[in-house]
Amino acid sequence: MTIKIGDTLPEGTLSEFIEVETEACSLGPNTFNVQELVKGKKIAIFGLPGAYTPTCSAKHVPGFVQHADAFKAKGVDEIWCVSVNDAFVMGAWGREQKATGIVRMMADGNAAFAKALGLDADFSKFGMGTRSQRYSMLVEDGVVKQLNVEQGGKFEVSNAETLLGQV
Question: Organism's domain of life (predicted)?
Answer without folding.
Answer: Bacteria
